[in-house]
Amino acid sequence: MTRPFLGFGLGLRKEHYETILVDKPAVDWFEILTENYLVAGGQALSYLDRIRASYPLAMHGVSLSIGSVDPLDWSYLRQLKALIGRVEPAWVSDHLCWTGVDGHNLHDLLPLPHTEQALRHVVGRLGQVQEFLGRRVALENVSSYFRFPNDELSEWEFLREVAERADCLILLDLNNIYVNARNHGFDPYTYLAAIPPERVIQFHLAGHTDLGELVIDTHDRPVRAEVWELFGAAARRFGLVSTLIERDAEIPPLEELLIELEQARRIAQPYWSRAA
After folding, report:
1. Which domains does the chain have, with CATH numbers?
2. What's the rounded mean pLDDT across residues 158-172?
3. pTM for the whole thing?
């Protein structure tokens, strides 16, 4: 597979719609939160259509719940497929997690046990999803704050096996790797070394809250130095991978995010110039 490279992007947030349309900032692409655009009509879709005319887009969802024991939500999948047809994204992603049970959405990205049974369950469901959508899906590694006592695989082994067995792609969230490394006591660089480069289609960079004994993936502040350092190692290992600054709360003016975006360019450039 030839991996598309879009460059350096930002998560599209409503606070920035007008600035983007008026100023046409130097952003290579935008990632949209799928669930914000599933309702037919309305202001959000109108803005999306106008921004799409000037920038490439990728779609990122939070409702696939690929690890749930509930049946797949085919109503959601039909809406997702329709939006894909409208947006024509470079790729579609969601999370390696579960988000609900007994039909109730818990509105959180909950981790899975890293067992062979869970692995087979996810791979089977993902196969149905990818067949229905007619494309590969990228799955993102999520942050976590506890471990299951019956884990049989490390987090990176589980992610790698899902990708290989389901023939899916990986959205590698480098902030989540750092958060989990701190919370669970592993080496984040061991994680990077175990992930097959040909599967990685995107990086996420985000901020977190460090409470000392616990690190929380808050996405409400700038990327921290330790995550920038991890990004440098990832750029060296994986080559040209589309990279996104993700901010979900305490949304700053667009200018502040553009400064972070330039920092990502500076860090990656020495490695990616050689790769290109």
Report:
1. 8-275 (3.20.20.150)
2. 98
3. 0.96
